[in-house]
Amino acid sequence: MSLQQFINEAVSPWMKEDGPDSDIVLSSRIRLARNFAHVPFPIIASEDQLGKILEFFSQEFEHQAFGDYQRFELVQISDLKPIEKRVLVEKHLISPNLAENTDTGAALISQNEQVSVMINEEDHIRIQLYYPGLQLERALDKASEFDNWLEEKIDYAFDEKRGYLTSCPTNVGTGMRASVMMHLPALVLTQQMNQVIPAINQLGLVVRGIYGEGSEALGNIFQISNQITLGKSEQDIVEDLKSVVQQLIERERNARQMIMNQSGIKLEDKIFRSYGVLAHSRVIESKEASRCLSDVRLGIDLGLIQNVSKTILNELMVLTQPGFLQQYAKKALSPEERDVRRAELIRERLKLEKE
């Protein structure tokens, strides 16, 4: 898969597959932070040292295959236009931090975009592996296998007492961040999220927005992940996170049922009003589009809307972001132009879905 395919397709191939509890859990992700043993960490390394790491990945892993993950492509940040970088961030293939590393940053991306290895971000290596729905154990198994594959050619920075050594002390130990992306509209509507978030934080987990630290929960989508990486095994971390996620799933489903029982007609009206906005608006801002897409997805999950697939909504959640809108238009757009183009694009996609 070429760079153009990475940035032109809004939905990664793996996202088109269904997964357990996918009405609420959009995806599961395992991220592993690793560093070379005898190279200074990126925060203090010279450009020459980081350049050699980039060259190593290009020589050893570009165009290689691992298991089901075919033909890895190395995308260098220095080769990307600003809009292209933004698109890759919107697809979660690179982080905002990596997008700023225009000298030695890169990403090694599998053909189906399920695996992305960020190179010379905060750490030398950050492996990301995704699965649809709630599949944390499976994602951990595959990420560990992939990690072992890399380690056949890389001597990792590792301490017998502390575990994997990383630039940020909060990642020392397993170097792992396990996370799930969840759609929780009913908990937001019933104002339960205000109670849920502090309770989750007390369990050593953190709740963030759709693009991680410092981002908003657009479209009622929240990212739940572990904070503790030291003193627990990878399996224990995943098990603790899964336990909390399963409780959230149950609470969200109960809240949906409660709203349907107590205010069914009002909820139905809210959902179909949002559908009407998406289907007929000529101008729509990003936040309003995300909110309406969330309502419509809830309507699909509750069986109220029959003629729209969740795949289209997943696509539109990405396709209507600023980077993708401009990539789709093949030119830079002002905020006002993006709002017009966003509305037009949503109308087109919903119309195609009906045909």
Automatic annotation (TrEMBL):
Alphabetized Gene3D superfamilies for the sequence: Glutamine synthetase/guanido kinase, catalytic domain
EC number of the protein: 2.7.14.1
Lineage, top ranks: Bacteria, Bacillati, Bacillota, Bacilli, Bacillales
NCBIfam families (alphabetical): PRK01059.1-4, PRK01059.1-5
Superkingdom, natural source: Bacteria
Pfam families: ATP-gua_Ptrans
Catalytic activity: L-arginyl-[protein] + ATP = N(omega)-phospho-L-arginyl-[protein] + ADP + H(+)
Reported regulation of activity: Appears to be allosterically activated by the binding of pArg-containing polypeptides to the pArg-binding pocket localized in the C-terminal domain of McsB.
Alphabetical GO biological process terms: phosphocreatine biosynthetic process
Source organism: Melghiribacillus thermohalophilus
Protein name: Protein-arginine kinase
Residues where ATP binds: 27-31, 92, 126, 177-181, 208-213
